Amino acid sequence: IQKIYLCGITATPPHKEIHKTALGATESVEWEYVQDITTLVENLRQRQVEVIAIEQVEDAVSLEHFSPKKGVTYALIFGNEVEGVQQSVVSLCQRAIEIPQYGTKHSLNIAVSAGILLWDFSYKIRGLH
């Protein structure tokens, strides 16, 4: 992870709750607050970053069918736990990935979603699959 962008209505370091759960990560992982996610996505794409929405939308690729490529820089867009990634933002992304879920609940909090995606990307990029 090179950098984390925090967008919209969210807490930013230093914050008591973030400090409690981050366990020092705010000192080792670069982060930046950006008010407008649309501008952020457009800027990332101009820098040749592949921007991927993590969302359950019609054309989303299931995570088990996505293979990240070595040498490509990715930005993963996670939405809030209630509304997810806005459709206007999904439309700006090059693709969408969804985490397969079974049963009646079809929502994961961002910590769980990010953990699954980051582990999967790392596993696949290192060629361990």
Class from secondary-structure proportions:
alpha/beta
Low-confidence sequence ranges:
none
Range of strand content: 15-25%
- Which CATH class of the largest domain is shown? Alpha Beta
The CATH superfamily of the largest domain bears the name SPOUT methyltransferase, trefoil knot domain
- Percent in helix: 25-40%
Oligomer: single chain
pLDDT averaged over residues:
86
Number of spatially distinct domains: 2
Q: In angstroms, what is the radius of gyration?
A: 15 Å
Which geometry do the CA atoms define?
A: globular
Gap from first CA to last CA: 20 Å
Helix segment tally: 5
CATH topology of the largest domain: Alpha/beta knot
Q: Largest sheet, if any? A: 4 strands, parallel
Layout of strands and helices, then pairs:
Elements: E1 3-7, H1 16-22, H2 25-28, E2 30-34, H3 37-46, E3 50-54, E4 61-62, E5 74-78, H4 87-92, E6 95-98, H5 110-125
Write up this protein:
The chain has 129 residues and is an alpha/beta fold. The protein folds into 2 domains: 1-35, no CATH class; 36-125, 3-Layer(aba) Sandwich (Alpha/beta knot). The protein contains 5 helices and 6 strands; from the N terminus they run βααβαβββαβα. The strands form 2 sheets. Strands 4-6-3-5 form a 4-stranded parallel β-sheet. Strands 1-2 form a two-stranded parallel sheet. The two termini are 20 Å apart.
